[in-house]
Structures are given as structure tokens and as C-alpha cells.
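Section 4.2 – Deliverable D4.2 (structural model, holo form)

The reporting period included a commitment to supply a predicted holo structure for the target in complex with flavin-adenine dinucleotide. Inputs used:
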Amino acid sequence: MVLVGGGHAHMTILKKLATFVKCGHRVTVIGPSPHHYYSGMGPGVLSGIYRPQEVRFHVKKMVEDRGGSFVLGSVARVDPESRRLFLRSGDEIRYDATSFNVGSHVPVEPLTEEENVLTVKPIENLLKARQMILDFISSGQPKLVVVGGGPSGLEITGNIWRLVRDQGAEAQISLLAGPRLLSRFPEKVRRLAMDSLAARGIEVLEGVHVSRIEGGCAILADGREYQYDLALLAWGIKPSELFLQSGLPTGEDGGLLVNEHLQSVTYPEIFGGGDCISFQRHPLDRVGVHAVRQNPILYHNLLATLEGGRLQSFNPNDTYLLLFNLGDGRAIYWRKDRVWAGGLAFVFKNYLDKKFMRKFQVSGELREH
Ligand SMILES: Cc1cc2nc3c(=O)[nH]c(=O)nc-3n(C[C@H](O)[C@H](O)[C@H](O)COP(=O)(O)OP(=O)(O)OC[C@H]3O[C@@H](n4cnc5c(N)ncnc54)[C@H](O)[C@@H]3O)c2cc1C
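Output (C-alpha cells):
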């Protein structure tokens, strides 16, 4: 069995990997880093609420401690007919059953490749952004721009404010929120977010479209120019392009097309979860909540594929809770029609996030540097 990506949807398999090994299966996990960062706590790492080691899983250690092999690398292509994975390094790995949890990325090309423009995924970029902001504020008042008015744009903006404030420094922070801040949420969520940012002197621009980012300047469709020392892009995500490039059946957005068993609609030995899949029954919001809920199904179905047994179905519940970390010790709670904000909402978010981390982190991880 080969797992491609040790992301949020593979955590249960990683934790129970020994079950596969005890049954006599060889398990290999491929990932571009020994660690996987939990996105829900990413903005808190940017501001310094959390240390990096508090928000990451040591995937390599999880795998090796349980009898599997970890391959540091990135899969560039799949040949589903010969059941082979081709890595960017040039190596090939064969599989009998495989599962993809390779996530999504913020599309940037052909907009820019500048050093002072970072996408909010992978979460490791937020560590870079933190260091860059610390360097900027040590010698002046930088212009920091976040592009994208969804939940991650909001959280990143609020947490940049906290980072600057905690250093006793000043910066000009702007959020270029696209047509409307938090447009897919009820008006009350938007208002709470707006009020929170405005009260801290953060500029929020709605009704704007960034058409180019170049040379330290975000150029809006109406010709206005916005200068920045650092720009963080949070303008939406796309699933990994691995499946399109491999000629596997995909949904309209390029995600691996899977049935209710989280199984490729054409190749029964291929599974997938998280942001990289397109669920055939109906599109799923690309939120970590779904990836987390897919864990037990992927675990069961991979074991059933290798050992024989009935597959289980994933029944997505489209009602889920989101808690937005505003960076000022408060959060916005949103679940369907229930919306409120305050310190208690952040306490709740912090509790849930830490509980998730504790469930899967290997011992000794917090002592790492
Ligand atoms: C700042 C921010 C905050 C967020 N907060 C929340 C939140 O509070 N709640 C929520 O529900 N959602 C949140 N989200 C959304 C959430 O990030 C995604 O839905 C979630 O990350 C999806 O998990 P995943 O495991 O599918 O993908 P990812 O987290 O992207 O993980 C994919 C993994 O695959 C690896 N990988 C990638 N390509 C390859 C390859 N070619 N070969 C091998 N391995 C590969 C990566 O290294 C990574 O470890 C947030 C997103 C952002 C950007």
C-alpha cells in the first residue's frame, strides 16, 4: 500500500499503520517534507500564538515507528494501468493499492514569482512570512497586503496585526477582499469580521479585483495600484494538478473523481481524500472538516481492499462548524445560522485544535526545535 501525502485525511491510517503491517502488507508513505502542518492553527503560528512544533505532525516518525517506510519526495505522475507512481526525483514506486491526500494550492502563475509574494499554502509559507515581517518591522513600518477575502484571508490579516502589535511595532495592513469579504457566509459573519478589523485600524477594500502583482505592486482591475513590502495571496485554491497530468478521471476542477467509497470511479485500487478529490455525488467545500471526517472511511476501505471486505460509504454532512481566529484573542463562531464572536469562541477553537493535534502527534514532538 502506498499513501501519497500524509495530509489531514490520512491521519487515522498513519496512526493505525501497524494494522496493515501486521497483516503482512508493505506500507510506503511519500511526502515532500517529514512534517505535515495543521492548517487550522497555521494563522496562529504566523502571529506567534503557537510554536511550529505545536501545529505539525511528524509524518516520517509516525510511519517508521509503526513499521512502514517513508520516502521523502513528491509524486509527479501516476500510471494507473501499470500501477506505478513517478516521483520528481526520477524514482518509481509500484503499488497494489494507493490513496492520495495531496491537498490543494493557491494558483499564482503567471502572476508573479517574486520573493516578497507568498501564497498561504503550503502552511510552511506562514513561517517564512512571520520571519519576513519580523525583519521588516525591526527597521520601519512596512506595507503588508493580504489578497483574498475568504476565511484564510481574514485569519491571516488578523494574525499579522497581532504579530506586529506583540513586537510593539507598526505596519500598514490592508486586506484586498475581492468583491466582498466572506461572501459565502451570512451577513452577520461579515459584519463581525469587518468591525473587528476596522477597530484595529486595518484597511479592508471590497469591490476590488487584483489583476496583476508585480514589482512590489498589486494592480487592481480599475488601474489603482497598491504597493506592498510583503503580499500574502489567499485568493482561493485548486486541487493538485497531479490527476489531470496523469490522465486520471477528474471532476471539473481537476480533483481526483471519487465515488461514495472515496475510490476512483475507474480504478478500484485508487482512493483519495481531502482537498485533492472531487466527490462525484456533489461538490464538497474545500475545508479541513471534510478531510478529517474522511479518515475512518479511508482507513476501513484500504484495509478492506487489501484484506477483502465490504467498502464503507462517506456520507458528507454539509453542516459543519468553522471558527475564525481573529488574532486578537477572539474568534468568530459560524455553524449554519448560529453566529457569534468573542474570547470564548477562541478558547473553544484552541481546545478543538489542540485536541486534534494530541490525537495524532507522536510523543516527543513538542520538544523538537
Ligand atoms: C490559512 C488557512 C487556514 C485554514 N483553516 C481552516 C480551518 O480552521 N478549518 C477548516 O476546516 N479548514 C481550514 N482551512 C482549509 C484547509 O487547509 C484544507 O481544507 C485542508 O488543508 C485540506 O487538507 P488536505 O490534507 O487535503 O491538504 P493539505 O493540508 O494541503 O495536505 C496535503 C499534503 O500532501 C503533501 N503533498 C502535496 N503534493 C504532494 C505530492 N505531489 N506528492 C506527495 N505529497 C504531496 C503536502 O506536503 C501535504 O502534507 C484553512 C486553509 C488555510 C490556507
